Amino acid sequence: MGGKGGGAAAGNGGGSPLGGEAGVSSGAAGEGGAPACNPDDLSVPFETRCLACADNTCGRCLCSGCQQELEACQNTPGCEDIAQCVIDAGCTDIDCYCGTHSLAQCLQGQSDGPCKAVILSAPGGHEPSLQDPSAGPATDAALAVGTCATGSACSASCQ
Fold first, then answer.
1. Cα Rg for the chain, rounded, in angstroms?
2. Which of 47, 55, 80, 120 is most buried, by the most CB atoms less than 10 A from its CB?
3. What confidence tier does 78 reach under pLDDT thresholds 50, 70, 90?
């Protein structure tokens, strides 16, 4: 699963900057001529789409400061679901999977985190182990967003 690096989205509540609530696009027109939230409109640059969907300071900062990580998450099946689970549960990195168990216990198969089911159901999701601490590509992409958020200029906005 990776080391401590913040939650997958490190958000402070609200919708995902990756596309509103868990990637569901909005068909509403944007305010003041701003683009509407439509994360699937590839004719619009990623950062513009992301900013249109971000509904808080953290999300807007991530769109600019962690653009590469967010775009990778959006393009990795299951990542947005994991990110939304992290936001909804209010957990951070390994605690989202391991829950009340230590990292050593977790890597030996004991875990009860609030996002465990979402992580395992993502394409390529699997139990982390000592030999392979990754829980799959979607989890890796979500952790990269969290690491960027907590280690960047967005850390104050995304606590």
1. 15
2. 80
3. very high
